[in-house]
Amino acid sequence: MKTIASITGVTTYVPDYILTNEELENTVETTNEWIMSRCGVSERRILKDKDKASAYMAAEAAKKLLIKKNISPLDIELIIVATITPDYQYPATANIVSEMIGAKNAWGFDIQAACSSLLSALQTASKFIESGTHKKILVIGSDKMSSVVDYTCRKTSILFGDGAGAILLEPSKDETGIIDAKLYADGSGLKQLYQPGGGSMMPPTLESVENKQHYIQMDGKSVFKFAVVKMADVAEEMMQRNNLTADDIAFLTPHQANKRIIEATANRMGVTMDKVMMNIHKYGNTNSATIPLCLAEWEHKLKKGDNVILTTFGAGFTWGAMYVKWSY
Fold first, then answer.
1. Distances from the Cα of 215 to the Cα of 127, 148, 153, 218, 271, angstroms
2. Which of 28, 55, 96, 327 could form a disulfide with 176 if both were Cys (CB 3.0 to 4.6 A apart)?
3. How many degrees, rounded to 5, is the angle at CA 305 between CA 302 and CA 307?
4. 164 shares a domain with 137
5. Pick from 114, 139, 174: which residue ends a domain?
6. pLDDT tens digit string along 232-272?
7. Are residues 115 and 148 in the same domain?
8. Residue 84's domain spans which residues?
9. Going by C-beta distance under 8 Å and a sequence separation of 6 or more, which residues neighbour residue 196?
């Protein structure tokens, strides 16, 4: 029988500081009503400590998971960190996390696929489990989005927050686990949502910093139109590939990009909103952390054998869906 990768635990970390819409009203030309109607975010968490970044949040989530599962960090064989805000260009954030949590026997690397990073990391990790080479893998989504947001920009400052989520993957003991996944990419969307500065195309200079080239740049209307179609398409495709109807789905776990995108995706799938995990109002778009933040919050409602569809959309463009049969 084919080995299946199973999600056996999930934990999260979010910073204490809460950035409210009322506070944003004092820094950009906006209102609470406008923000809620556009994206559905009322507050977001911000990591204020300048000495801490994505690795710190990832490590805090991972430590909680190890305690929760009563696992020694020495038992972890691989750490994959999904992030677009690594602490450094190199070394990998995963290496820093392994040191922070004492995972001395683990190797690791980062995956960057914008808001689809977490799903890409889960799919990659599942193949190591399926191959039989690994038995305990940490997949961590962690992003300090506040480090790349211009808080004088109304379009982006309202959307993003900081946070992390850790997921443990182990070989399934039955037929539950990650059943199927489909991921896509379309590079034509490059300049619709990207960070111009910081890479080899535009290394940091005084001019690039002054021109705010190291912050997120977004064409909101174009991104919205593309995301609504692609997230819904791939979620529907995942259902069709596995002969699932809306009635078969226990929960839809969408990337928390925008309330309207989430609602459109659910509508396309025929899934009622009571089956949709949505906490964007509390955390905003935390990029790689949104899906684990949802899974952790709904964990007490999930039952063994539940059919869960994860779906995401990110810059680039990247998008995808995953069918998980819940394992506990």
1. 34, 5, 10, 10, 35
2. 327
3. 75
4. yes
5. 174
6. 999 999 999 999 999 999 999 999 999 999 998 999 889 99
7. yes
8. 5-174
9. 202, 208, 213, 214, 217
**Do residues 199 and 275 share a domain?**
yes
Q: Is residue 219 helix, strand or coil?
A: coil
Q: Tokens 């063994």: give the residue.
A: 304
Which of 119, 154, 174 delimits the end of a domain? 174
The CATH number linked to 122 is 3.40.47.10
CA distance 8 to 126: 12
Distance, in Å, from the CA atom of 204 to the CA atom of 208, rounded to the nearest integer, reads 6
Percentage of the residues of the chain whose pLDDT score is greater than 90: 95
Confidence of residue 223 (pLDDT cuts 50, 70, 90): very high
- Full-model pTM: 0.97
Average the pLDDT over 101-123 and give the result. Answer: 98
Instruction: Indicate whether 122 and 161 sit together in one domain.
Output: yes
Per annotation, catalytic residue among 21, 95, 255, 307: 255
Q: Exactly one of 21, 258, 285, 307 is catalytic; name it.
A: 285
Same domain, 197 and 282: yes
Let me know the angle formed at the C-alpha of 302 by 299 and 304, rounded to the nearest 5 degrees.
120
Residue 115 among the catalytic residues: yes
- For residue 1, pLDDT over 80 is answered with no
**What is the tally of structural domains in the chain?**
2
Q: Does residue 255 carry a catalytic annotation? A: yes
Residue the block writes with tokens 């009203």 = 25
- Check whether residue 123 and residue 216 sit in a common domain: no
Structural contact between residues 7 and 177, judged by C-beta atoms closer than 8 angstroms: yes
CB of 40 within 8 A of CB of 284? no
Contacts of 297 (CB under 8 A, 6+ apart): 277, 279
Looking at the fold, whether 213 and 159 belong to one and the same domain comes out as no
> What letters, b where the CB count within 10 A reaches 16 and e where it falls short, cover 174-204?
eebbbbbbbbbeeeebeebbbbbbeeeeeee
What's the DSSP call for residue 174?
S
List the catalytic residue out of 115, 134, 287, 307. 115
